[in-house]
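Listing 4. Sequential folding, example run.
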Amino acid sequence: MTLPPKAAIAYFKAKGYQVTDSWRELWQEAHARAFTVARCAKLDVLADIRTALDTAMAEGITYREFLKQLRPQLEAKGWWGQAIDKETGEIVEHYEDSSRPVEYGSPRRLKTIYQTNLQTAYMAGRYRTLKDSTESHPYWQYVAVMDKRTRPSHAAMNGRVFGHDDGIWGTHFPPNGFNCRCRVRPVSEGSMKREGLFLSDSTGHTREIEVPISKRKPAAGSTIVTAYQGPGMDKPFAPDPGWNYNPGEHGERLAELEAQKLSAADPAIQAAHRKESGGG
């Protein structure tokens, strides 16, 4: 991943903190407002992870370097490995409806945290950049990484072009799941003609479907997501549970709401806000 634009960094920095037991507790657009790591009850540990991600985005640090810098800090604070008492061997915390000990920090978990947060912030920044260029590039093309790791449903979306204002982007703007590597490419009128691209329209091709929150844990229940099935698609394409939203779009709405609140605020509050944000 190349160094994210300033908009991506700004999106991530704008998030507050939220302590949760499960990623499901902070659902969809709520992730656009707060940063969380499941099973991380210590705010100082959450802050360490957040700071490491801030640095990774700003300096383009690789996952390997991210792990190397963060692991010693998490181990020192006891947030590493399984939730088992080292002296007695007793499980001190286990997953709900399971006897399996909770896993705190691990290379696997940190890789998911690193990839998910950087990709989400990058695509939120990408969304804002795309919105600024709709006059010259009014169409957006869904682009999947076409290799053996690509989900079949994501591959089925590869190359499809929609108008920038098509409702599909409110629910299917990538990432569309953990470790999703899809992106969106801006397309001009000229490119549409030169490349022989076909303009799709999601109208009449979307529907709400019920999907399990976890295929491995039926007891976790189900949720409703918006699925798209356009011409030529054998199966509908639906984002994973919890990913059926556009982080960049919700980030913009939050920024607008914040601006509205500020404009109605008392002059002293406005002055304090300008000082805090470096505006004098």
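-- end of first protein; second protein begins --
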Amino acid sequence: MAMFTKAYAQETLEGDGVAVNRLFPTSKRMNFDPFVLWDHFDIAAGHGFPDHPHRGFEAITYMLAGGMQHQDNLGNDAFVSQGGAQVFCAGKGMVHSEMPAAKGQSIGIQLWINLPKHLKKISPSYQQVLSKNLPIISFEGGHCRTIVGENSPIELHTDITYQHVVLEQNKRYQIYINHGLNAILYVLSGDIVLGDETLSATESLLIKANEEQNLSIQAKTASEFMFCCGVPHHQPIHQHGPYVD
């Protein structure tokens, strides 16, 4: 049987005056192998994340609104807007900054994925993918954008699937999770129903698939949610601030 755990994001202050809804790491949950951070951010112009170091993981910043400017010590200087993604592999170490668009609110999800032990010392790298290059599949009552997975140009060192799904009221979306994977279902807006659970904005289900799962998700109201699943490394995770060793 699969294990389903309901989890709630907690408001946390980060960077230069940025409040994020953090699913983990928190005092209640440090990580969810292979995922080591999940932040739902909403940044006003003039705030952000000045230069800071990282090592030991990969990260995806997916923009839901506004935009984000990425600069790093590798020489990258790039801006991505709504529907696009910035991806970096911190590897043995890098320094970067992330600053929002000059006007309005910049909203998105930052997800960190642990690197397996044998890849902790690889060279850092950066990849940017614009909205037009992330595939969208439309279906009756909604659509799904694949951030990582089939037909996406994003490549990671850990096998994951990552999607942004929009559903009209009372419509359904089917998700298949292979045996042995860990998955996150996180609601951005609206209300969704999965089995006996109803999830609203900033609420999530953490799923350990001890056997293959076929999940039918229904939108109780017009809804948006994120779904990701990945192969756990089953290795100790030493997580401290910006480092995952």
